[in-house]
Amino acid sequence: MSLLSHELRLLLRSRMAMGALALVAFLSVASIIAGMVEVAHQRAVIARIAPQQAEDIGAIAKWVDHDKDAGSAAYYSFHPTWDAPSPLAFAALGMRDVSPYILRVRALGLEAQLYDGEAFNPELALPGRFDFTFVLVYLVPLFVIALFHDLVSSEREAGRLRMLKSLPGRGGHLWLRRVGLRFVLVYGALVLPLLGGALLSGVAPLTMLAILLLVAAYLAFWIAFTLLVDRMAWSSVANAAALAGVWLVLTLVLPTIAHVAINQAIPVGQGVELTLAQREAVNRAWDIPREDTMHRFYASHPEWRGSPPLPKGFHYKWYFAFHQVGDESVAPQVAAYRAGLEARDAAAGALGWVLPSVGVQAILARLAETDLKAQLVYQDRVRAYHARLRQYYYGYLFTDRPFGKQDFDRAPRFAES
Amino acid sequence: MNPVGSSPIRLVAADELRLMLRNRVGMVAFSLLVLLTLVAAFIAWSHQRDIAEMRARFQNEATQAFDAQPDRHPHRVVHYGHFVYRPLGPLAAFDPGVDAFTGNSMFLEGHRQNTANFGDIRQSSLLVRFGQLTPAFVLQVIAPLLLIFLGHGVVARERERGTLRQLLVQGVSARQVLAGKLLALGLVAMLIGLPAMIGFALIAGKPGALAAPMAIIAGGYAAYLALWSVIVILVSALAGRSRDALLGLIALWAVVVILLPRVAPDIAGHAYPLPTKLETDIAIQRDLRALGDSHNPDDPFFAAFKQKILRQYGVSRVEDLPVNYKGLLGMEGEKLTAGLFERYATDSFGKQVAQSSLMDGFGIASPAVALRRLSMAAAGTDLNGHRRFLAQAEAYRYDIVQRLNRLQAENVRYADDTAQDEGADDRNRVSSQNWGMIPAFTFNPASARDLVRASLPGLWLILAWLAVVTLALFPLASRLQRHAK
């Protein structure tokens, strides 16, 4: 124990080491605060929409109530959906700043609504967010390099290495103590603020345990790599330069090359194509016999087949039927587009096995549910909700039931997963 | 400082370059960077070509589909709408800026303002957040680090070994030593920047590329690399040992190039929060309801509009108008909604500009932030460039919709438009020849003057930085001179 406290005294005397540790702690705390502020902001935005939405629907209900037309109700009512941040989102903000976490939909064609974006300033999104993941993936390796690159080489340069090697007993213990002590201090500086944030945010214990292990593994990887280089018998300067070069390649160069490669190998033009095709299908309905549309619609939705035939003039049930038929006509493109996005995501995930920087970021974003997959899960929930909306309005439209004020309150509400 | 022609300076520089040439690791790193630059230039160029080709193809398809519509009621076409795609200027291959972060396809229709969709950012894995491999990225982020690797020891090494003292005793002044070292490192910096600039010239030197913004980009990056050369010399001379110089420089680089550019947008985003699209949509609907209810025949606003039209044509009933009243009503409604869209879009964009300005303020602390602004602004790939597209798309949308409303007013009879009989649907269609008369969307890129004006603030910041650190060399030289005695 006294040996360990001796090592600690040595470390405390090193201004650079103490400065580095203090900085790690500061950056960790700052990133946790920044992440929590951002998540609180997102929650506040979601909480803000309910009253505004109620007022909007109330105004629509007021004038629809005059002739109680379910078609008008369905056409003019937008329904909110939202994707609340997970407890862990503060540590890995992921893609939540660029993909909408609030979306209004109505019972018309979904493929023309689902891909709408959110208003955000692209210049702010471009550099990426300052969160715990960023501090861990990008900055911590640099601190590891600063703290560990000359453990051996500095002793050699000071001429103490031979003496240390010839000490009685197992000389390995000395290095174990030195490395172990530094590891524990850096790890503590990183993880203690994170634990505080996790407790305040209510992160599940198992998730937290997984992250603690992940952080330890990532830190251990960089320390092991640094020590490996340190044993090469180069000078301290050469060690530092070589390590910084490796850091650059692993965290900046290779991920950017991989990004280009993945996007080139897996093109996803179907998004644009399916919106073009869906619009074509929807608008064609005006130029073909209305019965053709109804026929197609009843074929896939036999539950409404008993609906009375179309009147001479306009009827909203035909309008909604051709919107749904339009959606269904692009189902293959939707599936292909979706598969393309998932393939891109999977390719990046596979790369994580080779590049620790990518792996850690991918795992954290997955646990925090802020990655592309989480975006797609949210889209699925919007899809399911939209199907419920359609069913609800069709119950009035295809039976010619009047749609009054109280029926607005009965409309399905989006439920959080 | 002495003019660079004087021989001690040249000797020091030549000596330093010889050492660098013998530094095998340094040479490997340098070659790798050149290779990376070429790869980045090639990737950016082919990526840009693909994008341009794809967007042009989609734009063509959309225009053909629009023109190929059958005979339709004009209001059907208002809802059939149109698609427009944002083309990319030639300079985007060097610095694509926010292109990947904004949607680039937009659906235009009546009474609605849609978002631009299908940008790279929502269709990519999280790798997109690691940065994009472009010549701009290589020069902004990686080149300074290479300069640090190659140059951190140029003065510190001489101090460690006592050779600096020897030089000064032999009558070479400290200023000459620093000037020589700076000359050597500056040459290296030029060589680092050269492949990117050659690639830049090849990529962007196409017809339609603008000379002045290109010159600004070239000058801005040259100043940035020169700035880093001076910083490396400064820190190398201040630090007693090579190792301390290296660690100090890497720390400085991490703060200036990696950390600050990320912290700045966070602060800016919270200083000026943006309203969400949903809230804007609701607000616009609320404003429209306050203006008047077009569903209500007794609404004062629309009743007044009707009276105005009747007076204008000197008739007492809408049925007697020589034009179709429903078309006129459509034009009035579109004018109202478009005015509201404009107001809210301007408001949101104003907030975004405030965010970006606050972020640019960090250029005082980080030349990397200043250079990014200069680069994007000159390439026309910044927020302004995106706004140009949005504004032109909106103007085009308004123009199309009003042309169609006019067609309805002039070519569809009011009696047919309000009839409910079976044949009415055929009677109120207009000829499909009208669709081809509607002009296609052409995007007007920014003029050279606009691009230059937007990029100058960033350039001044970088030049100011360069001046400040260069001036700092003088007291440093005096200090070294004193210590040698």
Descriptive report:
The complex is a heterodimer of chains A (417) and B (485). Chain A is an all-alpha fold and 417 residues long. Helices cover 71% and strands 2% of the residues of chain A. Chain A has a two-stranded antiparallel ribbon with strand order 1-2. Chain A is elongated. The two termini of chain A are 51 Å apart. With 485 residues, chain B is mainly alpha-helical. Chain B contains 18 helices and three strands. A three-stranded antiparallel beta sheet of chain B has the order 1-2-3. The longest helix of chain B is centred in the N-terminal third of the chain and has 44 residues, at 24-67. Chain B is elongated, with a radius of gyration of 31 Å. Chain B starts with 6 loop residues before the first helix and ends with a helix. In chain B, 47% of the residues are buried. Chains A and B meet through helix 2, strand 2, helix 4, helix 5 and helix 10 of A and helix 2, helix 3, strand 3, helix 4 and helix 9 of B.
- How are helices and strands ordered from N to C of chain A? HHHEEHHHHHHHHHHHHHH
Assembly type of the chains comes to: heterodimer
The pair of chains with the biggest contact is:
A-B, 98 and 100 residues
CA radius of gyration of chain B is 31 Å
Number of strands of chain A: 2
Mean pLDDT of chain B: 91
